[in-house]
Amino acid sequence: MSEKNFLIRMISLIILNSSILFFIFCSNTNRQVVVDNPDYKDVRIKKFPIAVQCWTFREYSFFEALDRIEKLGVKYIQAYPGQILDKNKSVKFDHNLNSEQINLIKKKLKEHKLTIYGYGVVNLDNEQDMEKVFRFAREMNIKIIVAEPGFDDFSRLDEMVEKYNIRVAIHNHPEPSKYSLPQTVLKHISRVGEGIGACGDTGHWMRSGVRPVDGLKILSGRMIDLHLKDLNEFGNKDAYDVPFGQGKANIHDILAELTNQNYHGWLCIEYENKKEAKNPEASIRKCIEYIKSITYYEGYEELLKYSNGRYSKHGWNHYGPGYFELDEKNGILKSHKGMGLFWYSRKKFKDFVLELDFKCLAKNANSGVFLRVPGLPVSDDYIYHSFEIQIYDAGDGIHKTGAVYDAEPPSEDAFKNTGEWNHYKITFKGSHIDVELNDVKIIDWEAEPRGKVKDFSLSGYIGLQNHDVHTSVWFRNIFIKEI
Questions:
Q1: Which residues contact 281 (CB under 8 A, 6 or more apart)?
Q2: How far apart are CA 255 and CA 47, in angstroms?
Q3: Chain region(s) in the chain for CATH 3.20.20.150
Q4: What proportion of the chain, given as a percentage, has pLDDT over 70?
Q5: Topology of the domain comprising 305-482
Q6: Looking at domain 50-298, does it have CATH number 3.40.47.10?
Q7: Residue 267 · residue 310 · CB < 8 Å
């Protein structure tokens, strides 16, 4: 053998052995995928609907649980199979209830002003049970079935989802449960439609040695539901529930990751601490308070509406040339041609805080955010009676990004590099306008007629401008809070 061939063979053996060692290492290191860990401190956490899993009140009947959950101020619940329906009866809440019992449950839910959005965890062991569960969910107006199927082929389950228009979320009990690891859940749901996704249980992930944020990343785009828990320890099967923010789950980063994923499901609180099983309310209140304390958009209304898994332009109208294209899955608007105005027509706003993200893929991209358009736009006359917060990085002074167009220049340049998302926070109170661009205050102005603006109204519509045929601007996360 030549020296050259000997060296090639030795290098190949080294590479092969290294690969084998790496495989063995990965197979024995807590079975986790190492996921990049971004800095979540700057994420503006969206408001998610809060629910309670009735297992939290397993020491009580279903009807007693409704009374206790209503007093917590929560509007949504997830029921589980097996809870006694009434303390004086032996009937259990599950998919074997008859029509009379179902009607009684609906009546009780209405009395307590509660909505049952989910049902689980259900085993779904066979096709006969599957059909019964789906029929029951349809009769109860349940949107999500949380399950741990005993079979591997989800094709029939996928057909049920399509037939009944009810989604299924695969839940993870801790090891040795079949679905304890997010990779296993992903393997199963990636073979079927998006109507089957995941219900991540953050507490059970922690008991299985999976960081909740990593589990969410692995299942990104397929999260349908979430059982939200915080535990006192990580990686210990005997760890117990604590109020949010007091444990090792890192609830802030969980909600930040869900925000980044554009998650639109519920935060279903399931509090399992055995010592508090008779009275979990105090801890649940602390959980709810913590969620609210870290939610940036608490008290805001999102102006691009989301329902049935899609964003829509409902409530918006367009005046003038051009149009806005909407990515219905991600909620991103893109301007085309112009000059036109895409305006929110459902209501006029008086004093408000408006926040949104925008992005330009060219330095000369031109657009703007119109404030208090006084009436229905039927001509270009609105530009003389409402202020525009400019988007145009190539401009100067009163025509530059951040300016009140043609009236007041920004105090400094705070826009990001071309192609990056920027964030506007615009406050209009009385006649005073404040503008923050990427958390830098650049406008602090007592508004007056100036430049093109002849006068302005104390209330009006919000609008986005599409400017010309040469450039486009993207918008997302459009939120408003009246003050």
A1: 68, 71, 72
A2: 9
A3: 50-298
A4: 92
A5: Jelly Rolls (2.60.120)
A6: no
A7: no
